């Protein structure tokens, strides 16, 4: 079986010196990758420079990406040649379009014009007390996966912050259906500590609970295997 | 001599999962620290989690900070008890205040209200095609140094992107005077590659050129020593 795993968090550039980064250590993706490597599978890991990674192995390939754009370019051909995608990467929802002084934005009578602008300076500089950054939604990578390869088994991830379990499951099931995923791993940031990582693996009818990253890796491995 | 060095880049939180980060590997600060350590000085390094750091040594203390707020809290007492500050850290100029849907901003008749708002959600979520992030200027850390300790020898850094040498020197000298620095290390991002790092150490009357990070460390070491 050829297993594709994403981990870490994407970074979207504001200018040459600043970026918006989605925090993710890559720790969970690393542990999942190590589980599949131990079981003798061929693993491809798409990750980021700062993410923690498994030690190199003959059955492991690693690709590094930065932003959503490079993620899509890298992932598309890989999705087509893998059997399973475990998509644990924290992908940026928005990417910077234009940054302007607050006073300039305030005095404009058509804010839409800022959505069509570009910062040509390498490093945006300003003496203004306030600045305004306009951002645009990025393509939802998870929604493209089954279009690229309808046969792939997709395990999506949904991280929310400080919500009820009911709400977490509702959002996860919505993602499951919308993205034609086989499973969604749902978790809440407040349930993640250095020792514990409470998470729920959901399919259409069931919820399976895990309490550590090793647990999560084992659970995904077992359930995906059973499903195939 | 007690040497205080800052390195790496600060990170300002948008919400619990996203931040704006100033890119800086910490490589130059590390090499400068190693130079002073080799010469037998007591070195304190204020840096960030992702920055590269010297190996631990008995005459080296390391403090890790995240954002401008924690930088100021950490740096203030340290500045008071050191003889020299070499401030190579890339410090965020702006910090997020509030994020809102573009349509909400567009339909508002008083944009100032957004500057007084707070995102209470842990993870700001949105289905909107565009979002708007309002940012506020951070305190200029370099301008506080000589107020905290008028006796300290201050070496400031100025990184610009793709400007003329004339403009780079003008901006650096402005910083030298405004912040009562003894030297400013001026450099342009386009002159920094994996092998070379062209930089200019300026005081009121002179410009000294260096072409590698090791060169820069040597130059700062010599000129600061001569000055004292």
From TrEMBL, chains A, B:
EC code(s) of this entry: 6.3.2.5
Q: Which residues form a coiled coil?
A: none
Which biological process, per GO, is one annotated for this protein? Answer: coenzyme A biosynthetic process
Instruction: Provide the DNA/pantothenate metabolism flavoprotein C-terminal domain boundaries.
Output: 2-110, 117-226
Entry's InterPro entries?
Answer: CoaB-like_sf (IPR035929), CoaB_strep (IPR011848), DNA/pantothenate-metab_flavo_C (IPR007085)
From the UniProt record, which GO molecular function terms apply? phosphopantothenate--cysteine ligase activity
Q: Which UniProt keywords apply?
A: Ligase
Know the name of this protein?
Phosphopantothenate--cysteine ligase
Species: Streptococcus agalactiae
């Amino acid at each position: 079986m050829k297993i594709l795993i994403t981990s870490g968090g994407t970074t979207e550039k504001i200018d040459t010196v600043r970026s918006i980064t989605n925090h993710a250590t890559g720790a969970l993706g690393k542990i999942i990758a190590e589980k599949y490597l131990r079981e003798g599978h061929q693993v491809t890991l798409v990750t980021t420079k700062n993410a923690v990674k498994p030690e190199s192995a003959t059955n492991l390939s690693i690709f590094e990406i930065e932003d959503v754009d490079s993620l899509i370019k890298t992932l598309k051909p890989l999705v087509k040649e893998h059997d399973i995608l475990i998509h644990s990467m924290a992908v940026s929802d928005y990417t910077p379009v234009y940054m302007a002084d607050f006073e300039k934005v305030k005095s404009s009578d058509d804010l839409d014009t800022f959505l069509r602008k570009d910062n040509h300076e390498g490093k945006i500089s300003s003496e203004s007390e306030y600045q305004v950054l306009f951002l645009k939604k990025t393509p939802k990578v998870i929604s493209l996966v089954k279009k690229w390869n309808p046969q792939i088994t997709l395990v999506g991830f949904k991280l929310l912050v400080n919500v009820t379990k009911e709400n977490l499951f509702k959002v996860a099931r919505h993602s499951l259906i919308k993205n034609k995923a086989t499973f969604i791993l749902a978790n809440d940031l407040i349930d993640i500590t250095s020792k514990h990582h409470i998470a729920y693996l959901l399919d259409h009818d069931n919820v399976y609970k895990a309490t550590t990253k090793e647990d999560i890796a084992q659970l995904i491995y077992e359930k995906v295997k059973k499903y195939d």
